[in-house]
Amino acid sequence: MHAASDRNVIEFRDVSCQFGDAQVLHELNLQVRAGELLVLLGRSGSGKSTTLKLVNRLVSPSSGEVLVNGVANTAGDLIRLRRGIGYVIQEIGLFPHFTVARNIGLVPRIEGWGDSRIHARTHELMTLVGLPTELSNRYPHQLSGGQRQRVGVARALAADPEILLMDEPLGALDPLTRDQLQREFLSLQQRLGKTVVFVTHDLHEALRLGSRIALMEAGRLVLALPPEEFLRSNDSWAQAYVRAFEDRLESNAPKGTS
Q1: Residue 120, domain member (yes or no)
Q2: Does residue 113 lie in a domain region?
């Protein structure tokens, strides 16, 4: 199992972000360590997805800077930056007219890999994420939601990036499939040791997956703590999340029989 190190792979320094008159992010200071799975937790509009998109420059800060491996991510080539960062979203973003194999091998092909190397890497990754290799010639519409999400993860890992950004990747799945993929992804992360930033609004998912949970509210970072410390936190926003989580557990518990 890989453990997080003390080296910062991603760093937000006094980052603010404004869209028109709306201040989406306020002076964010946050570090993500190598091998860490940092969960950005918060309600809709809290700024968590904007924070994620700042890393691969899908969004640019109004002030402050984002560093990747100690260098401002505005300093180098944008295409090179993005090819070194895997990106997985809820709707997956697969190309519908590409087969599974072609979707997974897209970035390696752009990088100039040879056909045999792409084929070997595609089959390796399909096995890694739990996809039967006989699905390689299928198209996205021929797959289940869970299978499409696995393809999305495989594609993000294809060129072996150090960083993986995941924006509510499991939110559209049914509860059983989501539970299974959470377990599989956690096992995958522990084996590969990627640096992951994972966005969710679900505390159960955050507690299960995160090495740290960064709670955001109204564009501000409230706290960033390991799961067990998050549960014990006296912060009012953290307590509200924990209470809602406990209430949901209680309401979903099987009713006793008399």
Answers
A1: yes
A2: yes
> Sheet holding 22-33: strands in order across?
22-33, 8-19, 63-68, 71-72
What is the C-alpha separation between 91 and 149, in angstroms, rounded? 8
CA distance 162 to 176: 29
In a domain, residue 111? The reply is yes
Cα 209-212-215 angle, rounded to 5 deg? 100
Residues in the chain: 258
Residue 6: which of 38, 25, 34 has the closest Cα?
34
Q: To which residue do tokens 């860490």 refer?
A: 36
Q: In 3-state terms, the chain is what percent helix, strand and coil (to 5)? A: 40, 25, 35
What pTM value is reported for the model? 0.90
Q: Is residue 143 part of a domain?
A: yes
- CA separation for the pair 183, 129 (Å, rounded): 11
pLDDT in tens, 114-149: 999 999 999 999 999 989 999 999 999 999 988 998
| Structural domains counted in the chain | 1
Q: In angstroms, rounded to a whole number, what is the distance separating the alpha carbons of residues 86 and 91?
A: 15
Domain hosting 157: range is 94-161
CA 143, 145, 149: angle at the middle one, nearest 5? 95
